[in-house]
Amino acid sequence: MKTTLTKTLKDLGVREVNLGTSTGQEFFGSGNEISSYSPVDGKLIGKVTSTTKEDYEKVIDSAQTAFKTWKTTPAPLRGEIVRQFGDKLRELKQPLGELVSYEMGKSLQEGLGEVQEMIDICDFAVGLSRQLHGLTMHSERFGHRMYEQYHPLGIVGIISAFNFPVAVWSWNTALAWICGDVCVWKASEKAPLCSIACQNIIAEVLKNNNLPEGISCIVNGDYKVGEYMTTDKRIPLVSATGSTRMGKIVSKTVGERLGKSLLELGGNNAMIITPDADLKIAIIGAVFGAVGTAGQRCTSTRRLIIHESMYDKVKNTLVDAYKQLKIGNPLDENNHVGPLIDTDAVKMYEDALAKAVAEGGNKVVEGGVLSGEGYESGCYVKPAIVEAENNFEIVQHETFAPILYLLKYSGGVENAIEIQNNVAQGLSSAIMTNNLREAEAFLSHAGSDCGIANVNIGTSGAEIGGAFGGEKETGGGRESGSDAWKVYMRRQTNTINYTTDLPLAQGIKFDL
């Protein structure tokens, strides 16, 4: 693995030590070291230096300077740079996917899939660069024309989480770039090398096009570095992905300075299985949604709401399916489940299972922490299934681990929808049914209250082109598709008078 990793890092231009803050092509940093250990085998991958306040000021100066050039670059030409970035990602998909898998712990297929999401958002953004449209409106005044247009905001601060160490950044930055913004990225301190790899890739593209390096910048460190961004009036928009607790702090801090925030926070996602469901796809969707990325997706399936008439059949089928799961090194494509991000996550998993049992839950798939050969990192756990009630305190909270709660409902689909909606979060939801009336009820204004509502596919995952995000304590943000580009721009209404008269509002006369 060491030989393969060394080649992977070399392909991405990542040295193994002394990396940290970047204003573009050069890395520097004078803060404390952050060591990146792989949850796969517990080995040290590399070290980065955290960003000091002095380092941060250099980054912001570089970004402000770059913005002066970038905002006046025609949008289609900005799209051309994003196209070149997407092409570089195609060339480096394998090594970057391997790094994502090894540093974060998700399966290699998922690591490669995450890089593909980056490529897809680049393609989407390139087309969008020629469609940053406004509206033209008829004025009530003779000889006047009204329209609205969108302008770049400036510096966009991006705070991303460990579970998607490259894709979520690209969702934001690809759109922000074609909108004329420059970006400063604080990646998770649990996966810092992924951010450096991405920075190296875009830095090469910018250099080859003689563009300012400050168009893309990174900073590294813990929440204190994030506070530099949230309190900085020079950053009009902060996009933050993470826990609801973190999002509330970001929202309050940015709001106090009347800045804008785009929040992608926790999910407590449910899948409803009705008597009219196709059980084959329902089981596949439930298992992947619950155990994919070891349950560390914001869209992971946490709750399975099953009609009482088929509850036992679904439960027994799930138990059999879980027996077939292979847990181990995520770079081995024969394995279905990799490790949790670190031992703190393992402790959270154990505490959640204990809490569920203490509240009256029944473990039908035991779970547990794995040890021994192949599990030396201490980060591998068994996916667990617990029979529970929706009002359990632990069920009401998101646990970033492969724990699936089984909930039973009776009566019509409206009862299942009520259970699904009765949590604080509102990200992703799904229903498995071949009944058209049930499907339409689920998608109606009285149905799912989540930002994502799927029929006959699971809760997990997202497709570039559709706006991604959720309601309630999920934060209300939207990224990666539809008209999400508008959040990265400021809207301006324009009125043009092409006559020799100046009619005043409310018929006021003011003759000179």
From TrEMBL:
What is any Pfam family matched here? Aldedh
Give the Enzyme Commission number: 1.2.1.3
Aldehyde dehydrogenase domain spans which residues? 32-493
Keyword line? NAD, Oxidoreductase
A single GO molecular function term of this UniProt record: aldehyde dehydrogenase (NAD+) activity
Task: Please verify whether the record's keywords include Oxidoreductase.
Answer: yes
Superkingdom of the source species: Bacteria
InterPro entries attached to this UniProt entry: Ald_DH/histidinol_DH, Ald_DH_C, Ald_DH_CS_GLU, Ald_DH_N, Aldehyde_DH_dom, ALDH7A1-like
The protein in question is named aldehyde dehydrogenase (NAD(+))
Q: Which organism is it from?
A: Lutibacter oricola
The beginning of the lineage is:
Bacteria, Pseudomonadati, Bacteroidota, Flavobacteriia, Flavobacteriales
